[in-house]
Amino acid sequence: MEGRYINPFTDFGFKRLFGTEMNKELLISFLNSLLHGKEEITDIRYRNTEQLGSGIVDRKAVFDVYCENTAGERFIVEMQKAEQDYFKDRSVFYATFPIREQAQRGEWDFQLKGVYTIGILNFVFPDDEYAPDCMHHEVKLMDVKDKHIFYDKLTFVYLEMPKFNKTEEELDGMMDKWLYVLRNLWRLMERPAALQERVFTRLFEQAEVAKLSTAERFDYEESVKVYRDLFNVVNTAERKGFVKGKEEGLEEGRAEGRAEGRAEGLEEGIAKGIMENMTKNARLMKAKGYPLQDIVDITGLSLDEINKL
């Protein structure tokens, strides 16, 4: 059944709520809730989300939302719908663009404004990396010996959304309320009593599917299709990869009679199964005319790999 409110994990839903000038108060409230009073953002201006490299051959970056506050600090806000290889490398790479664009011609003392990269993740990091109940991560450059913050102008904030399972009655503060909205908005049929702040009045007005124009409704439905395709691709790849990897791992383990053989076979089988399925889906999406960047985001394959299909 179609929900009453848009799904913020779709490209259309996320950018409608956080990436438009008419709804910038929503983004301001969300950012302030994440920063725990360390910043008090009163206004922002949106910046170009497409960042070009220094030269023609340099790789570009396309952000979901990119803005600057009145103090000149930059904020990249990304909705990451599926796990990717080298996700952290990608985050660091993206952060270099708002750093480099601050360079000034002529004499310059290298003073920089703060840069924040915020990732709203629809997946969790590997099990051995963080505790199961730890879903909000704030990362800065730190001295590993005495643990003090070496540089406080570069911050990465990651939210592992699948770990957020608080009920309406358990919400405590604005960050909890925003996380609850992101996690549950598309499931709700009415505005929860706990979300009475004025900013949520605006949010629920803008999120109502019935109030979308015909063109907006079409764009949203197309965005939902892409989101569902991604969900199905990931689930299918995980299921096929696991089954195939398990079979190959057990067969190899029995033949060699070693536990490490089973483990290696399982890992290789899962990786091979996932890659085969991602390639198959990328080829299908390419044939249907999906934008290449969407195929990259959905499958995790590189642009070069997709061009060779």
Q: Would you give an account of this structure?
A:
This protein has 9 helices and 8 strands. With 309 residues, it is of the alpha/beta class. The strands form 2 sheets. The protein has a 6-stranded mixed β-sheet with strand order 1-4-5-6-8-7, sandwiched between helices. A hairpin with a 6-residue loop joins strand 7 (136-142) and strand 8. Helix 6 (214-256) runs antiparallel to helix 7. The chain is globular and about 50 Å long. 27% of the residues are buried.
Structure class: alpha/beta
Anisotropy-based shape = globular
| Rg value | 22 Å
Q: Please report the distance between the alpha carbons of the first and last residues.
A: 36 Å
Work out the helix count: 9
Total number of β-strand segments? 8
Low-confidence stretches: none
Largest sheet: 6 strands, mixed
- Fraction of residues in helices? 40-55%
What percentage of amino acids are in beta strands? 5-15%
| Mean pLDDT across every amino acid position | 83
**Could you state the order of secondary-structure elements as H and E?**
HHEEEEEHEEEHHHHHH
Numbering strands along the chain, what is their spatial order in the largest sheet?
A: 1-4-5-6-8-7
